[in-house]
Amino acid sequence: MQSQIVCSGCGSNLLYPRGATNVCCALCNTITQVPLPGMDMGQLICGGCRTLLMYARGGTSVRCSCCHTLNLAPAPNQIAHINCGHCRTTLMYPYGAPSVKCAICQYVTNVGTGNARAPFCVT
């Protein structure tokens, strides 16, 4: 079974066999250390092409291997609040999310651009 990790050099997604301690990127030859078992991985959606990206929590940015957009990683525990657009219940969601679904009435409230993260593009 294979796992995946983000290259610490170019941000590409790398596949590696379980049990490996480090992975060499075929694109940039950077050696990326595999996180210890139990280390928390985060996910975010690329602001350039909407691809799901994985990264080791604690990282500050993630480069998309598809469109090469450099995405800012959310700081840990950044939680925002909004009232449900239907039942007015206070909802908590990760900062930067485009919408949040109410667990009570199932209504999806659009967050708007007030707390959206703009992708940081490097050409």
UniProtKB/TrEMBL annotation:
Keywords: Nucleus. It is found in: Nucleus. InterPro entries: LSD1-like, Znf_LSD1. The keyword Metal-binding does not apply. Transmembrane segments: none annotated. Residues 7-31, 46-69, 84-108 form the Zinc finger LSD1-type domain. GO terms for cellular component: nucleus. This is Zinc finger LSD1-type domain-containing protein. It comes from Gossypium darwinii (Darwin's cotton).
